[in-house]
Amino acid sequence: MDQPLYFPCSKLPSAQQIAAAVEPDLVIRDWHEFGRDYDRTLMAWWDNFKHAWPDLSGNYSQRFYRMWKYYLHCCAAGFRVGQLQLWQIVLSRREARPGYQSIRP
Q1: Cβ-proximal residues to 89 (8 Å cutoff; 6+ apart), any chain
Q2: pLDDT at 51 over 60
Q3: What is the domain partition of the chain in residue ranges?
Q4: What is the pTM of this model?
Q5: 74 belongs to the catalytic site
Q6: pLDDT of the residue at 24
Q7: Which has the least CB within 10 A, 17, 67, 89, 91?
């Protein structure tokens, strides 16, 4: 697997690696994947950046503008097609009483 361009020597853990790392001390109470929602978040960031660019352009280069546009759009595409995931994981100590209630319907 190639290393990520922006984060050399980094590696995102798999769901299996995360689950193995929390055992036996913690219990996974909830695991929610909301990457499809993050696609919309990234595109909203792009819209905000694009509209603010006239005020920002004096502090940043056109190269920065192009790289930031590329980064946001590539990330959004990765979430859109399911190649990237964004998880929220709720953990508790094993000895804690189970009582977590998700706010999702």
Answers
A1: 18, 28, 30, 31, 32
A2: yes
A3: 28-93
A4: 0.69
A5: no
A6: 84
A7: 17
